[in-house]
């Protein structure tokens, strides 16, 4: 037992000074008490539970190796070990006085919902082991006072603590009057694991009802879904804003961003002024400032003309030269900055007058229904 005492005291000192150093380092670095503290408390609880399990296992080992020594003083020894564990827990919490400190920066550990439940499950599992070992140790010490030969039957002790069933030789005391073809019913107690599990479900249901339905402290599934969808839409828009090269040709819209229109101007000056002139009045190519178009106006037609070209008229395809974003930018520049201006020497109008068709409410409703069906 001296070796056990030395191990416990050494581990206690290590945890006390180790946790103080860790928290001191975190506070000196300006770590906020929040998710980090919650995670640290979960971790501290797991460490304490592991220490208790270690002490219980060592006590069981000592019981089995020194039966005569523990016959009359087993409960006292077990109590002393529990007292030591209690002192360890108190020292851990008293040693971490930095818990009360606060800081302004973000926590080191973000307590996600998954990590939160994992830590709860881990500590619950360890606590279950502690309870089971307690009953096993209690059964071992009790058996030493009476039937010594059962002290080594650890499996039977564990089974008995989990089932709380009456021994076979005593089953005649709990026989009921129910009899069916010679099969009689026993009035055994409910298994502790099932009974306490049932109690837990009742408590959980009450807490859930209060938190979610009465107090409204947390979101129900519908509200949580709506919030997540809203957040996802915001994140999607932010992502698309950074992906300027992504162009949906089925739903092109004239750009309004001045920076992108300037980029379109740069593309026009570098590639289009030879045929259309620096002011879009037309040279070899047609005038781009009036409302007449040979291949259709509007963003859809202008973009497609630039993309595929008009080989029979001498206009090449720019698909392999300009990116989709550049084609959209130069198309928008033509429609927003050149169309409607007065060039120095404009060419005569060519093609047909282009008039944008106004979308009626019926068309909008039909388009919305079609879009919904295709999603």
List keywords for this structure.
single chain; 375 residues; mainly alpha; Cytochrome Bc1 Complex, Chain D, domain 2; 3 domains; two-stranded antiparallel sheet; two-stranded antiparallel ribbon; 13 helices; 4 strands; 4% strand; rod-shaped; disordered N terminus; disordered C terminus
What does this structure look like?
By secondary structure, the protein is mostly helical. It has 3 domains: 2-163, no CATH class; 180-222, no CATH class; 249-356, Cytochrome Bc1 Complex, Chain D, domain 2, CATH 1.10.760. The chain has helices spanning 2-28, 35-65, 67-71, 74-95, 113-145, 154-163, 192-214, 221-242, 258-271, 273-276, 298-308, 324-338, 361-374, and strands at residues 175-180, 183-186, 292-293, 352-353. Strands 1-2 form a two-stranded antiparallel ribbon. A two-stranded antiparallel sheet has the order 3-4. A hairpin with a 2-residue loop joins β1 and β2. α2 (35-65) runs antiparallel to α4 and α11 (298-308) packs across α12 (324-338). The protein is rod-shaped. The two termini are 71 Å apart.
Quick summary:
The protein is built from 13 helices and four strands.
> How is the largest sheet built, in terms of strand order?
1-2
Overall morphology = rod-shaped
Kindly estimate the percentage of residues that lie in beta strands according to DSSP: under 5%
Structural class: mainly alpha
Helix content percent band: 55-70%
- Radius of gyration, taken over Cα atoms and rounded to an integer in Å: 40 Å
What is the tally of helical segments?
13
How much is the average pLDDT? 75
